[in-house]
């Protein structure tokens, strides 16, 4: 329960910090940290207009997208605080919950019948497909390392004590940061501030959504950021720490992560569109290195 | 600690497959030299001054300063394009490097010989395989030199793997060979660059006496 509340609180200011950092680096006036929240409240007050070509799928897709992100939040533990829901193999369920939300958004984009949105849906599904092996190999390796197959047990038993486990921790954080960027359609893969439909990935998919629906989509993307930030913080926070230190470390890591995302977006150029697949595949390759490391630690591969 | 750097070495191989910029190749060679130094440094049981100086000279001085500096000079002199085209898409190269890593780890697991330190054999075998692949897919002779250096780094690790059988003297000989090879190849690239105003290998097939 505690971890659920912590994730929900951190999701409120996550995007605000990113926007603030980007504004500071571009020497613009910084918006207040809760500006995205005010924007979403304004959107929630508005109604929605639906195109005549759309069907019921388009209307329920934002709701399902939001609900899937919210339910996924229930499975994330933080340090020694347990998750709201937990069962064996819940990280597979987590991945497919996220997948279902994304699937509904893709289907809804196709439903509008617009050429641009179909193109965006095409790209988004391709990138999500490529990033999936990275997530599963990573989580599978950590599961093998800790001998647990639920998020809670997995992170509770993740101790960095030997030199080799450091490389697992660091490489996992690296891979997870960029999985977050791909999942949220952020910088190296997609630029949320791009102005041309032809170069958009996620933004072009939600062109037809407005008002209440758009607000739901925004909130879901905050939640996703916060969820992945919590997963990253679990690799650092040790369950043996005092409770208040764990909470402080969680917020510290979330702030640092959002700061890092802002810096990355301000300084890094977007990949060329055709370079994206190989770049995402690189994440899977690094996950395979993590897997080999785990095989050495657990003596499945015996070297002398 | 050696395992940590062996895994980092494996990661540099993945980045070699991913990167297309010539400048990045040079930087990756520098990083590989430093990682090789760390691997040797942490695998020594007791540190003698002579060994330490020798290893420092071999890895840091030659592999990560002199050779990259020299090939960087060659790169600048020949006005190479920033990116070099490859005949196989990078997407497949990443799959190849992952397969070569997995295969070499599995082979090392099966070797299980008391004469060989299989921990070094893993990445060294992958490095040799990948170096050959790197030479095959690139169309530019500059990249061929880089591939040659990747193979050499793999052979350096192989010499650690069979440390008990291979005296330091042999290692020194290989090092000299490689240094001279790179210098000669650099001059060679410069000559070709001057004559043909390009370093692509398809030009070379038209060479005549």
Overview of this protein structure:
The complex is a heterodimer of chains A (304) and B (209). Chain A has 304 residues and is mainly alpha-helical. Chain A has one domain (2-297). Chain A contains ten helices and no strands. Chain A has helices at residues 2-25, 35-45, 56-73, 90-111, 115-146, 151-156, 163-183, 212-236, 243-267, 276-297. The longest helix of chain A is centred in the middle third of the chain and has 32 residues, at 115-146. Chain A is globular and about 65 Å long. Chain B has 209 residues and is mostly helical. Helices cover 77% and strands 0% of the residues of chain B. Chain B is built from seven helices and no strands. Chain B has helices spanning 2-18, 22-43, 49-77, 90-111, 118-137, 141-161, 168-196. The model of chain B has no long low-confidence stretch (mean pLDDT 85).
Keyphrases for this structure?
heterodimer, A: 304 residues, globular, B: 209 residues, mainly alpha, 77% helix
Percent of residues of chain B in helical segments? Answer: over 70%
Low-confidence stretches of chain B: none
Largest interface: A-B, 24 and 30 residues
Quaternary structure of the protein: heterodimer
Give the biggest sheet of chain A: none
Biggest β-sheet strands, sense, barrel of chain B: none
